[in-house]
Amino acid sequence: MSTIKRNQLFVASCLALLVTSLSFGIRAGLLNTWGHEFGLTQEEIGIITSTAFWGFPLAIVVGGMVVDVIGMKKLLIAAFIFHALGIFLTIIASGFWPLFISTLLIGLGNGTVEAACNPLVASLYPNNKTTRLNYFHLWFPGGIVIGTLIVSFFGQYVADSIYLSNWRMLVGIMFIPTILYGIMFFRLTFPVTERVASGISTSKMYKSLFKPLFIIMLILMLGTAITELFTGQWIDVLLKNVTDNAILLLTLETGVMVLGRGLAEPVVHKLSPQGVLLMSSILAAIGLYLLGHSTGNMLFVGAIVFGMGVCYFWPTMLGFVSENLPETGAVGMNIIGGAGMFAVSVYMIFMGGYYDKLVAQKLPSGADLAAYNTAPAGSDMANALNNAKSLAGPQIINATSIIPVILIVAFAILFVYMRSRNTKTLPVANATIANPYEDQ
Predict the structure, then answer these.
(1) SS (H, E, C) 194-236
(2) How far apart are CA 435 and CA 126, in angstroms?
(3) Reported pTM
(4) Do 130 and 320 contact (CB within 8 A), yes or no?
(5) Are 315 and 30 in contact (CB under 8 A)?
(6) Helix (H, G, I), strand (E, B) or coil at 108
(7) Rounded to the nearest 10 degrees, what angle do helices 129-137 and 264-271 cross at?
């Protein structure tokens, strides 16, 4: 029997997630470029970007249902195929529909990675799930930092004409980690999922999905995902006309997330997962308030606070479910993740149209938004459009800031409930599960 090399599987998982995050970071920096080159409205850009978010839940939910049957290795080979095709089609894209289809494929790849890697990490580190999931998901903001820095470099230090004609080269960079993780996963041996290893039946797993605590966490995931991912994906669009360094705000925010997830172990152990979620909601609400009501250097303060707030949301939600509802297995973790991404996709389409409406309201009466979007740079129409966008962007952020305020109340109740439940449970010694894997 082949030895399961835990560390190599973890590294390959991080590379796969790096591709997911690069797709967010690079695409977030190219939205305005695509709008200019292909004459897209903000609503069309919202539809394109949202495609990745509903392709993700489609893949993660279906993948969660079949991962116990077909195994994590086959799912990750499928993820490699989706990613490779999506990157290639993006490079040769010529307008709305090619970008739509390529984004869908990348979203399917992203969701399939999560469908396999979340239960893989939980299976590899059964004694330290929440911390290890935070370490794994560190590579999501880490890749966004890398992607936005690359886009920022090309946008600021390369002539605009060259940048606009060579954005495809930036997308092609994603081929490097894609090929690497594909080779590694193809060669390595995988364990079975934790649910299969523990002998929990399939029927019990599906029945557990109707437990009240799971349904509550499912609903709360909608808010945490929108707060983190909508703001991150759209920050360059929403604040581009408020600051000259909007994409660097995303870089700063995600850089804080990398640092925070790297320090997850002492934070999670000190506060508990539910305590971390409460703290995160408070900081996220403050950060969004600062981003929506500030200009100049205070925007960077807002980005730092917001990054501190959202850095633990996604992995800690998954870790909470895995630790407190282990019988839900891979399906539970993946439904939670899929619901979050689906919520972001719906919210993004809605906000794309709302943003266009806000911008139109701030233009002269009867103005044709499409004509203003294609106006030459420096013209009166272009200046009026930029001014309208500088007013509309913060309004979208302010509307979104209501969500973490609601989460503060919800997670405060969860914190009290979990504390009362834990005090009723007899304390048991921390068991240490033997390590059956080779750490290579």
Answers:
(1) HHHHHCCCHHHHHHHCCCHHHHHHHHHHHHHHHHHHHHHHHHH
(2) 9
(3) 0.78
(4) yes
(5) no
(6) helix
(7) 140
CA dist 160 and 428 (Å) reads 63
Q: What is the DSSP secondary-structure string of 280-341? A: HHHHHHHHHHHHHH--TTHHHHHHHHHHHHHTTHHHHHHHHHHHH-GGGHHHHHHHHHHHHH
Burial call 99-128: b when 16+ CB within 10 Å, e when fewer: bbbbbbbbbbbbbbbbbbbbbbbbbbbbeb
Give the mean pLDDT of 138-167: 67
- Does residue 42 carry a pLDDT above 90? no
- The interaxial angle of helices 231-239 and 273-293, nearest 10 deg, is 10
Instruction: Quote the CA–CA distance of 302 and 96 in Å, as a whole number.
Output: 33
Beta bridge mates, 5:
438
Rounded Cα distance between 246 and 363, Å, is 23
CA-based R_g, the chain, Å: 22
Say which amino acid occupies 136.
F
Angle at CA of residue 81, ends 110 and 129, nearest 5°: 40
pLDDT tens-digit profile of 264-278? Answer: 888 888 888 999 999
Of the candidates 323, 322, 350, the residue with the CA atom closest to the CA atom of residue 337: 322
Condensed to tens digits (0 to 9), the pLDDT of residues 69-118 reads 898 999 999 999 999 999 999 999 888 999 999 999 998 999 899 899 99
Q: What is the mean pLDDT of residues 128-135?
A: 88
Question: Can you tell me whether residue 155 is helix, strand or coil?
Answer: helix
Query: Regarding predicted confidence, which is higher, 380 or 436?
Result: 380
Compute φ and ψ for 310, nearest 5 degrees: -90, -5
Residue 36 token pair: 């200019």
Question: Distance between CA atoms of 358 and 396, rounded to whole angstroms?
Answer: 9
380 or 119: which carries more pLDDT confidence? Answer: 119
Query: Is-contact 90 102, C-beta < 8 A?
Result: yes
Longest dimension (CA), the chain: 73
> Distance between CA atoms of 89 and 101, rounded to whole angstroms?
8
- The pLDDT value given to residue 2: 60
Cβ atoms of residues 147 and 106 within 8 Å:
no
Spatial separation of the C-alpha atoms in residues 197 and 188, rounded to whole Å: 19
Q: How far apart are CA 114 and CA 76, in angstroms?
A: 9
